[in-house]
């Protein structure tokens, strides 16, 4: 069995390489000189040539790619053109910030999603169900960047209870788990939680409704099973799929949401990516995309494995 | 038993319904018309499309003409029923004109992806084996990424602009459509009537054209309509990040971006474009759900 | 009677995929080296339990699946090489079990029947004409049924349509894969009689596959019993039904409930578990369930040997001098 696990892991390598090759070459597809971010507009020809040589842009593309991969494997992703700091440290900080945001968003999202989904499924067909389902559909239809703005309008502009953006006065390096810092995470977390909430609500509702409608549940209730026991029975049956869906959502959130992080200027991986794009900060862009690409390829592998394990149709030898 | 005349099929004939039943599409349509929610949503979207088409005649002002004196006027001001934006342009006109670009950018990628994705998916599903593996594994790589990330990455590489954004979103939506097409094609291909067609000696193209296409495109089309709401949000989102429409063109996502800095001065005006996006997306969602129910039950 | 179809050493194995964790795997020996003839104008019945390979064999005959090994000869010419596939397709047609899945839900039944002839070059109008006359021939009035869709017909009517479709290409052989198994008994009787009439009128040859022994006995001239991808016994219907020689055939026939209430089934005739076609052990496939099995049965392939006029059996008990305790002594 482990041989096959290893084989699947081995697929990750060429995929990772292919994706990074695409990432690497993406930036050369784009119009504009890669160096235009750092160069002064009226740079002399010698200066341009020197900068190119310094950054290695004068070598042919495959050679550049090879060198980049060699360094990346050793953990060195280059220096950010805009800030001058190593890409690694920028990435590391961004990842931890996204993690904080994802943690809160998932806490809200999963709790709400499970609660709503269960309620709608338990009372499915009634007005409760219809209301919850409509809310869920609305939840998936709302542009989350707009929702973020609306929340800022309500809570920052009108009531002035919560800050509109950023991560706190000390920036991301001084994060602490106290109200002074936590107040910054509330609005982004609620905004980010909306889509997982809607998805989990729909999934759990369908699961609960399906389990309750199966005939053996009617038989159990006829035998005199109490409501609480029926509840636990439903939970036990719905748990595997629900957990799988929640895991997937957590994964997506850990990847960072560009749109929400941009609205709130939350310095996570999504924000880093958009900054890198707009400043045409090549090393940063390549490093960030590489990290995100590998992250999602791994995530998918994990999801595949979990789903295979859960699938009762697979014969167990 | 051997001597019974098979004219005993007279019994069969009597059991058959007297008149041929309703055609397939008219049954779908009548189901749709009975679903009030779907009808309302369809009308709303139709109204918005008409509004976009006839924008030059409906909008009161020029959407590009601004006035430094009249910046950020609140809703209900004189001459500016929905207020004015940060450059003094009339919001109502910009919202009406904005429908054009927003709707085009929201619908076109799904249409293109429907064509290309179906082609890939049906090919992979029909041929199976190596062809299937190559196509679907490649698609799986793209499918691994969340749509937003993929859209931003591709747009970021190609640069801002409407065609680039449409191209980027088409690429984002090809994998999910191709997967659905492949899955349905594989199921249909295993059915006996396809085997019977092969046993009749028909060539692959004939089989696909006569037997596969009609039975596969239904579910694929339904799935594609469910992507419309997502595409609206993503297209506007790209413009919101600055990777789609470029100023000064009116487009709802871009308007959200430029008005963002104004939320402290005139929050409601700043929120209006997002409301439009939400409205359209919501209607598309309900519409696609309604179409799915109508087509499912009739089958 | 001349031989129309000759099958030699047909073999088809299906490898099973392993999942992400390496579970599963193995090879299904669906059809494992079978050979038989079908003479012109006769009905060959094929019986066996689920999983014995009947349907795979049917699909191999019409070339819906490619065989791994073996050859099929139609009218003396090898299909695929000496006879091009399109020509073979025109001569051999199949009727499937699931009457609903056999018809494209979006085509009228007239179009479904006309599809084959159109593909073979007949102009559309003539193909439609032929479709309508075939509909009449199978007992469905064309004026009422030609424009209908499959979901508007009953199971028996759909199966008639499938028969009409099979006949549209004017084949010589029709393979009926459990064609009446899904029908109600009364409808089944009507369809069977229809098949017999059509066979007489058009001079057809049938390969009739079924798990229903009574139906096979009614329809067949010769019978072939399959077990786990191999032929256990084959011969004239009356000979096989009247005097089954293979232990499996005996068990199968004795499992048929008798109409006589005084004759009660004392014990299940077949012991052991149902067969697993994945990676079967060497030797006789029936060894695990046979009351007469001995060690010698587990070694080597068991060949079909003659046990009377055209009646062949694949059992060591009928082979002289093979080493089995019940086998007759070798002829001097």
Describe the structure in your own words:
The complex is a heterotrimer of chains A (317), B (299) and C (332). By secondary structure, chain A is mainly alpha-helical. Chain A has helices at residues 2-29, 45-55, 61-73, 87-122, 127-141, 144-158, 179-213, 215-222, 227-254, 258-263, 269-278, 282-310. Chain B has 299 residues and is mostly helical. In chain B, α9 (192-199) packs across α10. Chain B has twelve helices and no strands. The model of chain B is unreliable at 1-21 (pLDDT under 50). In chain C, 43% of the residues are buried. Chain C has helices at residues 54-61, 85-91, 109-119, 124-137, 142-145, 155-167, 185-202, 213-219, 237-242, 247-254, and strands at 3-15, 27-39, 43-47, 69-74, 77-78, 92-95, 173-177, 205-209, 222-227, 230-236, 305-306, 312-313. In chain C, α3 packs parallel to α6, α4 (124-137) crosses α6 (155-167) and α6 (155-167) packs parallel to α7 (185-202). In chain C, β4 and β5 (77-78) form a beta hairpin.
Distance between the termini of chain A: 10 Å
Can you summarize the main beta sheet of chain B?
none
Radius of gyration of chain A (CA) equals 24 Å
Strand content of chain B: under 5%
Largest sheet of chain A: none
* Assembly category: heterotrimer
Beta-strand content estimate of chain A: under 5%
Protein chain pair with the most extensive contact, residues per chain: A-B, 45 and 41 residues
Overall residue-averaged pLDDT value of chain A: 77
Structural class of chain A: mainly alpha
